[in-house]
Specification:
- The chain is an alpha/beta fold.
- It is built from ten helices and twelve strands.
- It has a single domain, classed as Alpha-Beta Barrel (TIM Barrel).
- β2 and β3 form a beta hairpin.
- The N terminus is likely disordered.
- One of its GO terms (cellular component) is cytoplasm.
C-alpha cells in the first residue's frame, strides 16, 4: 500500500554534501572503488557550511569493514567548526556508539550494515534517542536475472561499503526500516555512484510513493540539472553529492539559484 507523505511537499529541498572518510581523509571514487583524496573532512565541512549547504553527512567508509568504531574525536572536531546539522556514520553497532557520537555534537547518526544484520537495532535507537536522530543508509545495486534475461531485475541491498550482496530486496528493506523507526532513508545507488550520469530516479520515485519519511538521494550527481530531476521525477526530499562539490564542479550557491529558477523550493544561501 502506498502512503501519503506526512509533511508538505512544499518544504524546502535540502542540498547535502557527503564526505566519505578513510584513514581520516575525505575520499571519492566511482562505483565504490578507485578512491582518490579530496581533502581534510573538517576543512571541507566548514567550507560547505559557509557556502550554503543545508546539512552534511560524514561516513567512515572503512569503519565496518575494518571492525573499528567511528572516532568520537572526529565528531567533536566537526561540531566545533560547523553551524549546520551533520550526520555521522560508520561502524555503529550498539546504543553506546550512538550515545558517544550525539554527545560529541552529531545531530544524527547513520546506520547501514549493522541494521541489516540486526534490524532490531533500528527499534532500539529510535526508542532510546528518537526517530529524528536515526538515518538508515542503504546501498543497493540493480541485478538482472542470469537464468532468464527476460525476467525483470531487482534492487538488492549490499553491505560493508558495497562489498557483500544480501538477499534483502531494496523496497522491502526500506519499508521495514521505516516501520522499525527510521527517521530518514539515505539511498545510494551503487550503479550510479560516482558516474555523474544522474540519480536513480525511477527507484527513488517508487520509494517515495511507498514511504512517508524523507528520502535522501545519493549516487550519480553530475550537474545542476540532475538535482532538478531528482527533486521532481525522483521525488526525493534531499540530494546528496560528493565529488562535484569536492572538486569545485558545482557551487552550492549556483545550484540553489538554478533550482529556485526551476521552481524547486530551496533554502536561501546566507
Amino acid at each position: 500500500m502506498f502512503l501519503l507523505k506526512r509533511y508538505s511537499p512544499l518544504l524546502a529541498k535540502r542540498i547535502i554534501p557527503c564526505l566519505d572518510i578513510k584513514d581520516g581523509r575525505t575520499v571519492k571514487g566511482v562505483n565504490f572503488v578507485n578512491l582518490r583524496d579530496a581533502g581534510d573532512p573538517v576543512e571541507l565541512g566548514a567550507k560547505y557550511s559557509l557556502a550554503g549547504a543545508d546539512e552534511l553527512v560524514f561516513l567512515d567508509i572503512t569503519a565496518t569493514h575494518e571492525r573499528r568504531k567511528t572516532l568520537a574525536d572526529l565528531a567533536r572536531d566537526i561540531a566545533r567548526h560547523l553551524n549546520i546539522p551533520f550526520t555521522i556514520g560508520g561502524g555503529i553497532r550498539e546504543l553506546k556508539d550512538v550515545d558517544v557520537l550525539l554527545d560529541a555534537g552529531a545531530d544524527k547518526v547513520s546506520i547501514n550494515s549493522a541494521a541489516v544484520r540486526r534490524p532490531q537495532l533500528i527499534d532500539e535507537l529510535a526508542y532510546a534517542f528518537g526517530k529524528q536522530f536515526v538515518v538508515v543508509a542503504v546501498d543497493a545495486r540493480f541485478i538482472g536475472s542470469a537464468d532468464d534475461p527476460g525476467k525483470p531485475g531487482e534492487w538488492y541491498v549490499h553491505l560493508n561499503g558495497g562489498r557483500i550482496k544480501t538477499e534483502h530486496k531494496l523496497f522491502d528493506w526500506v519499508t521495514e526500516a521505516q516501520e522499525r523507526g527510521a527517521g530518514e532513508i539515505l539511498f545510494t545507488s551503487m550503479d550510479h555512484d560516482g558516474t555523474k550520469a544522474g540519480f536513480a530516479n525511477e527507484a527513488l520515485a517508487e520509494m517515495s510513493d511507498r514511504l512517508s519519511i524523507p528520502i535522501i538521494a545519493s549516487g550519480g550527481a553530475g550537474n545542476k540539472e540532475h538535482f532538478a530531476e531528482v527533486f521532481t521525477t525522483g521525488k526525493a526530499d534531499a540530494g546528496l553529492a560528493a565529488s562535484i562539490f569536492h572538486f569545485g564542479e558545482v557551487e552550492i550557491a549556483d545550484l540553489k539559484a538554478y533550482l529556485a529558477g526551476e521552481g524547486v523550493a530551496v533554502r536561501p544561501v546566507g
